[in-house]
Structure formats: structure tokens, C-alpha cells
């Protein structure tokens, strides 16, 4: 009788973590930045239908890198949780912290289960507050841990290098145009230090804008508005965004 093959629990967890990290690294990176009027999501995404960023609830946005089918299941579950909690209790009871805890439990259970492979996803849950100090950013790696972030966060293939670049250059009170340009500059840097150009049509951009008069603060940015923001200087980009927001609400 042959001796059963034994793998220590520590080695098993390390192997599962490595498997998940390699899967996430194959995807394109994305960044989430705070700016003066809210939170902006920026990522390279040539698809117009398969979104990396989505609205979860009134003031809450969702960003994900990794396998689309896996993070789409998590997104749908988050929307259901938010809708049920808001309907059962109150809309103000739906928070990014509560949603992050739900995602952490789900990811942690899957990661520690020997019956299925770990999810190859990394999530960001963001909530825009009434003021800059009230904004919340939570990063959730594949193992279900929760990291409370401030200012900027990057996930995906080249996240470490991008995070380092953002930490050195991001500052509080940036305009939307400034934050968007910084995000594109960070995403444009390759692992070898060289830079490449990412055209506007290959970018997916969304914002949680605290200045919007509507209850729902999530809005996608694209087309001519995105091109103007990428070419804007100073506060002009923020003014143009505000004017287009007003047109949307009419």
C-alpha cells in the first residue's frame, strides 16, 4: 500500500495564493483615486460591454481586476445585498464597510475551501462621503482580507509599481482632470520603466461625484467629455464635468 501524498496546510494555502496572484496578474491594472469632488475609477479596457467598474448603490462603486465571470458574480451579489438591506432598513444603512465585510466573508470562504479553486480576483469597494474626509476605499485581495486605503489604490497585474508611482504624486484636493491624468500616466508605465500611450477610446472611466444633485453619485465618463478632461488644464475639466452633469439631469 502506497503512502498518501501529504501537503502541509501552510504549503497548501501558499500554493492557492500563488495560483490566484498569477491569475490576477494576467489582467490589466486599474486605479481608484480620490479627488476634490469625489472618487475616480480609471482602467485600460478595450471592451465597451464588459465593465471593470460598476455602481452598487447610491454612493458606492465597485472595481475589479481578474477573471470577469468571477467578479461579475460578486458584483451581482453585492447589488442584491445592497438592495435588500436598503429596502429592509434604510438607504443610509448600506455602506461600503458593510459591503466589504460581505465580500471578505465570501472570498475568505472560497479561498480556504479545498473543494474549489480560489477566485482570481481583486476588488475595490469605494464610497463617496459628504466631504473628502468621509470617503472610504477598501481593497479586497483574493484571500478575503480587507485593506483600508487612503488617497489612491491600484489592483491588477502591475499594481505594486503603479501604487508606488501614485503614492509619490497623488495629493489631496486634486481636480478631476488632474487625477485622471495622473491615473493614465501611472497605467502607461510598463514594468521595465518605459511608457506607452493609452488612447482615450481604450480607457474605462467612472466617478463617484459628491457634487451631483442626484441621489445616485455614480457616473461613467467617455467620448468627448473624456477627451476634454485628458486635455484640460487646471479647473476647466471640473467645470466641464459639472456642466455636462447638469445636462444629464435635465
TrEMBL record:
Q: List the GO terms this entry assigns under cellular component, sorted alphabetically.
A: cytoplasm; proteasome core complex, alpha-subunit complex
Q: Name one GO molecular function term.
A: threonine-type endopeptidase activity
Which residue stretches belong to region Disordered? 229-250
Residue ranges annotated as compositionally biased, kind Acidic residues, are 236-250
Task: Give the keywords, sorted.
Answer: Cytoplasm, Hydrolase, Proteasome
User: Which domain of life does the UniProt lineage start with?
Assistant: Bacteria
What is reported on the regulation of this protein's activity? The formation of the proteasomal ATPase ARC-20S proteasome complex, likely via the docking of the C-termini of ARC into the intersubunit pockets in the alpha-rings, may trigger opening of the gate for substrate entry. Interconversion between the open-gate and close-gate conformations leads to a dynamic regulation of the 20S proteasome proteolysis activity.
Q: Which residues form the signal peptide?
A: none
Instruction: Report the pathway entry.
Output: Protein degradation; proteasomal Pup-dependent pathway
Q: Which InterPro entries match?
A: Ntn_hydrolases_N, Proteasome_alpha, Proteasome_alpha-type, Proteasome_asu_bac, Proteasome_sua/b
A Pfam family assignment: Proteasome
GO biological process: any one? modification-dependent protein catabolic process
Question: Sorted alphabetically, which PROSITE patterns does this protein's record hold?
Answer: PROTEASOME_ALPHA_2
Compartments it resides in: Cytoplasm
Task: Describe the subunit structure.
Answer: The 20S proteasome core is composed of 14 alpha and 14 beta subunits that assemble into four stacked heptameric rings, resulting in a barrel-shaped structure. The two inner rings, each composed of seven catalytic beta subunits, are sandwiched by two outer rings, each composed of seven alpha subunits. The catalytic chamber with the active sites is on the inside of the barrel. Has a gated structure, the ends of the cylinder being occluded by the N-termini of the alpha-subunits. Is capped by the proteasome-associated ATPase, ARC.
Q: Which family does it belong to?
A: Belongs to the peptidase T1A family.
Q: Which PANTHER family match?
A: PROTEASOME SUBUNIT ALPHA/BETA (PTHR11599)
Q: Which function does this protein serve?
A: Component of the proteasome core, a large protease complex with broad specificity involved in protein degradation.
Q: What is the protein's given name? A: Proteasome subunit alpha
Amino acid at each position: 500500500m502506497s503512502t498518501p501524498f501529504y501537503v502541509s496546510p501552510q504549503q497548501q494555502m501558499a500554493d492557492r495564493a500563488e495560483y490566484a496572484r498569477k491569475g490576477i496578474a494576467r489582467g490589466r491594472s486599474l486605479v481608484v483615486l480620490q479627488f476634490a469632488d469625489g472618487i475616480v475609477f480609471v482602467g485600460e479596457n478595450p471592451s465597451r460591454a464588459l465593465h471593470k467598474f460598476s455602481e452598487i448603490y447610491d454612493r458606492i462603486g465597485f472595481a475589479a481586476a481578474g477573471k470577469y465571470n468571477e467578479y461579475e458574480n460578486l458584483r451581482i451579489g453585492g447589488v442584491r445585498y445592497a438592495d435588500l438591506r436598503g429596502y429592509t432598513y434604510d438607504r443610509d444603512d448600506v455602506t461600503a464597510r458593510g459591503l466589504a465585510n460581505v465580500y471578505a466573508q465570501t472570498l475568505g470562504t472560497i479561498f480556504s475551501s479545498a473543494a474549489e479553486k480560489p477566485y482570481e480576483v481583486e476588488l475595490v469597494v469605494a464610497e463617496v462621503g459628504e466631504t473628502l474626509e468621509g470617503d472610504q476605499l477598501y481593497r479586497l485581495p483574493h484571500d478575503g482580507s480587507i485593506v483600508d486605503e487612503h488617497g489612491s489604490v491600484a489592483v491588477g497585474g502591475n499594481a505594486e509599481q503603479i501604487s508606488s508611482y501614485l503614492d509619490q504624486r497623488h495629493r489631496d484636493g486634486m481636480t478631476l482632470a488632474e487625477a485622471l491624468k495622473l491615473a493614465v500616466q501611472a497605467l502607461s508605465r510598463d514594468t521595465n520603466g518605459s511608457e506607452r500611450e493609452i488612447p482615450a477610446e481604450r480607457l474605462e472611466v467612472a466617478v463617484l461625484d459628491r457634487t451631483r444633485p442626484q441621489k445616485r453619485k455614480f457616473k461613467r465618463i467617455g467620448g468627448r467629455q473624456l477627451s476634454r478632461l485628458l486635455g484640460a488644464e487646471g479647473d476647466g475639466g471640473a467645470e466641464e464635468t459639472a456642466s455636462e452633469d447638469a445636462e444629464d439631469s435635465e
